[in-house]
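Appendix B, record 7
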Amino acid sequence: MLIVAKLSKIGSDKMSTTTQKPVLRGQRSVSIEEHDFVEQLVCANNHFGKSLTLLSMRLGRRYTNSELYTVAADMLGVSKPFESQSAPYDYCRYSLEGMGFVQHRTVPNKAEFGKRWLRAFELTPYGELFGKPSAVKFLTLADSLNLSLKRLNGSTNTPGGTRRGYVVARILEALYGSTYHTLTDLSNAVGISISVISEAMKDLREIGLVMHKAEITKEGRLAFDTAYGPILKVARSLESKTEKREFSGIVRDIGASRIIELLRSESERYKTEAVSPAVSGRRNETAVLGLRQTFKQSQFGFPRLKEALRRSKETIGLNIRDDSSITNIIKRLTEKGLVARVGEGVYRFC
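Structure tokens (predicted):
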């Protein structure tokens, strides 16, 4: 059965036309378009924790909550790879599963007490073929530019609901080979609305990938050559076995030891960035994440979130219905790459 992915509109009335291509995701074939595919690979690598979780998993094995944490710790060679033990489980449940890189399963509980069956996750062929190589690509880029994944891809949404990753890839591609005197010219060239282009260009200037004018820097060229370009290329060649084989071979070619080095470097970059301290709000975060299915892919603001929390049974006994509490929870979830800011006071789940 062919399931066609629901696509977000690029910009306002401008959208590049691409051919839908079937891709194996888990146990089903999904028709996916170029921009949707690029967005998934970028969003899967907007945070150190997501990339580590993805790269530490192996095909054919089911991982429980504790096992996800253990294999990540073993890969990184540290005792505490995440802020909380449930972090990799949350990445799987609330982000990577929705992209098709992992899928949930159940395993028998070996303990003599508790539930008979435990929820677990396993890496999908889609995650092995595209997710892990993209993680290597972006980790390599982050290391080359000395920018964290959060700085590179953390703001995964732009005004209008367009995912930033695809917009950035198209901007860098256009600027790589041509010079545009105005943002209007650039907007017309890539087929994305000028408001979206303008917002993305501000971020790209801030991290040094483009100049004040619509010109690409040497760092921008490096970014395109290292990560965004290869991802665009495979997105346009999903029916090519050769392209898929070359892309999936990235993990093998770079080697396990180098991947571990890249992860450790990224871990240090992540630690040096300002992250709000962990507080006893674990249940509060879970309650907000539990609303993912309620909002699905739509945007949400504080009034809508407050109303949803008021109606949710999961919030009984939790003091998270005032603006300050919700702000702090959203801030922590944004830092973890599970929620992204779309506009002023407006967010969506990654």
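Remarks on this record: Confidence is low (pLDDT under 50) at residues 1-31, 156-161, 274-280. Residues 125-145 form the longest helix (21 residues).
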